[in-house]
Write a structure and sequence with these properties.
rod-shaped; D-Maltodextrin-Binding Protein, domain 2; alpha/beta; 10 helices; Arc Repressor Mutant, subunit A; two-stranded antiparallel sheet
Length: 334
């Protein structure tokens, strides 16, 4: 019985052809493949072999050979050559969007690689401990932008333990954090940036607000506002227990601005870095017997390949004055 083929048969044939075209276009790559695609697209625009060759700065025979090679790859004519006109064939119309996509993506990849190599643009993923004073970090970012405009910075703020986990997992290239009691780890490399004393933030009406310091023993029985992201969490517990000091948290806060507001309202004291105590009605008293200090470092993973932006960040972090002091000069082994 003669007549039109069933619709399902035609759809299956079309799907098979599309799959074959996709397979062929994916197989075209490399220098020669990209040149063939460029010649094809130039001929699509000009619909004239001579003009297309001129636009590509090649001889007409070279362009003609390249197009014939593509036609052999696809198994059919891509153009109908009808003097004096040239027009796209049905097969040419089908493959054009696929070849255009390959051409565009190839150019984009080359542009990204070229910009990276020339340091026109380098993305740096930096993790920052959320308890560090924003003023100091903003100063670092501003210096990095002014002297290294090619570096595109992606910031992540979190607590110290989360930052460490993400650094080792490869989600972050470098982090700035402090983790008291942390055991030495041969996997990481640390550059000391600054030391900062921990204080007790109390409201101005507190019984010890005018004292020079706040002995640990005086903390016993005091109402305590716990900072959820505090890097000393867990570290100080044993020290306080040894001295018979018990502090029961009555409020928990993830944000230092809320913590300070509650301190100012007289709801309790907070254990904070000295430079974070900036709020009306709140004073910071150094903790003594014993003292508590945090060492903030710039930390990376040894042996890992980094973007060029990491070197720029290290340079600016070492150049910067942190709370009035410069980091100690260091020697970084090659």
């Amino acid at each position: 019985m003669h007549g039109r083929k069933p619709l399902r048969w035609r759809e299956d044939k079309h799907a098979i052809r599309e799959a074959k075209l996709k397979s062929v276009t994916q197989s075209i790559g490399g220098c020669h493949g990209n040149a063939q695609i460029r010649y094809f697209l130039a001929l699509v625009d000009a619909l004239n072999f001579t003009k297309a060759a001129e636009n590509c700065n090649v001889s007409q025979p070279s362009l003609t050979r390249a197009v014939k090679l593509l036609e052999e790859e696809f198994g059919g004519p891509l153009f109908y050559r009808e003097r004096p006109n040239t027009r796209l064939s049905e097969l040419g119309k089908m493959v054009k969007p696929h070849l255009q996509q390959i051409f565009d993506e190839s150019h984009q990849a080359k542009r990204v690689a070229r910009d990276f190599a020339c340091l026109k643009k380098s993305t740096l993923t930096l993790g920052i401990m959320s308890t560090i004073s924003p003023d100091e970090i903003v100063d670092l970012i501003a210096n990095l932008r002014a002297r290294h405009p090619h570096v595109e910075l992606k910031l992540c703020d979190a607590n110290a333990r989360d930052l460490r986990t993400r650094l080792l997992a490869g989600d972050l290239e470098v982090v700035i954090y402090a983790l008291p009691g942390e055991q030495p780890d041969d996997r990481t490399h640390s550059i000391p940036l600054f030391r900062e004393q921990m204080v007790l933030a109390v409201h101005r009406g507190h019984r010890l607000a005018k004292a020079v310091a706040f002995p640990v023993q005086e903390m016993n029985g005091e109402s305590y506002i716990h900072r959820v992201n505090c890097e000393f969490a867990g570290y100080t517990d044993e020290i306080l227990q040894q001295r018979g000091v018990t502090c029961t948290p009555i409020y928990w806060s993830e944000r230092d601005d809320w913590t300070l507001a509650m301190v100012a309202a007289g709801l309790g004291f907070a254990f904070m870095p000295a430079n974070a105590v900036k709020h009306p009605g709140v004073v910071g008293l150094p903790i003594v017997q014993p003292e508590f200090w945090r060492q903030v470092n710039l930390v990376s993973v040894r042996g890992r390949r980094y973007s060029p932006g990491v070197g720029s960040l290290v340079q600016e972090a070492m150049r910067k004055t942190w709370f009035g002091e410069r980091p100690r000069p260091i020697h970084i082994a090659a």
